Amino acid sequence: MSNRIRILGLSGSLRRGSLNTALLRAAGEMLPAGAVLDIHPLNDLPFFDEDVEADGIPAAVAALKAKIVAADALLLAVPEYNGSFAPALKNALDWASRPHGESVLEGKPVALFGASPGLGTVRAQMHLREVAIGTGMHVLNRPEVFVGQAGGKFDETLRLADEPTRAIIGRMLDGLVVWTRRIQGPAAERVA
């Protein structure tokens, strides 16, 4: 176990101009000392299909699962589509939880945040929490980060410019590092 906390960021939005992916990039600018963030795109994942799984795990799925195994924690950027979270993120979690009994999500600390042009991503994050419980992940409960009216909080280069939003994301990242060390156990806390 290293004293560095390795965080894997996944965005549920596949769009090039995604504000949720921009949130992940912003998080990378605000990491606490001793933490690193790797953002892994989900564009190449096939839809989960047990027939495909039976024929052999696709390379894109194997790459995702290897990144999750190597990470100490996950940071999920959660867009809200029709009152729930995005199918791309659900698909990634379905693959990561398979095959039965070999989930790479079990016991993984995770923080959720999301951006929306509307009121935020409250419903999407609540649904994702249910999936997190079902897959054995440990969700950081506070602070909750719901970035509403998100279009006005980014500049023309998709850099997060809103200081109050940056501040709460910074607090969430601090909390994720502490939460991860707590879950890893006393040896990890002493290293910090």
Task: Walk me through the topology.
Elements lengths: L4 E7 L7 H11 L5 E5 L10 H6 L3 H12 L2 E5 L2 E2 L2 E2 L1 H10 L12 E7 L6 H14 L2 E2 L5 E3 L15 H22 L1 H6 L1
Parallel strand pairs: 1-2, 1-3, 3-6, 6-7, 6-8
Antiparallel strand pairs: 4-5
Any overview of this molecule?
Residues 6-150 form the NADPH-dependent FMN reductase-like domain. InterPro entries: Flavoprotein-like_sf, FMN_Rdtase-like_dom, NAD(P)H-dep_reductase. This is Chromate reductase. This protein has 192 residues and is of the alpha/beta class. It is 42% helix and 17% strand. The chain is built from seven helices and eight strands. The protein has helices at 19-29, 50-55, 59-70, 87-96, 122-135, 163-184, 186-191, and strands spanning 5-11, 35-39, 73-77, 80-81, 84-85, 109-115, 138-139, 145-147. The strands form two sheets. Strands 1, 2, 3, 6, 7 and 8 form a six-stranded parallel β-sheet that branches. A two-stranded antiparallel ribbon has the order 4-5. A hairpin with a 2-residue loop joins strand 4 and strand 5 (84-85). The longest helix is centred in the C-terminal third of the chain and has 22 residues, at 163-184. It is globular. It starts with a strand and ends with a helix.
- Total beta strand runs: 8
Number of helices: 7
H and E order = EHEHHEEEHEHEEHH
Q: Largest sheet, if any?
A: 6 strands, parallel
The first-to-last residue Cα distance is: 12 Å
Strand content: 15-25%
- As a whole number of angstroms, the C-alpha radius of gyration is 16 Å
Unreliable parts:
none
Structural class: alpha/beta
Shape: globular
Integer average pLDDT: 94
Counted up, domains total 1
- Give the name of the CATH architecture: 3-Layer(aba) Sandwich
CATH superfamily: Flavodoxin domain
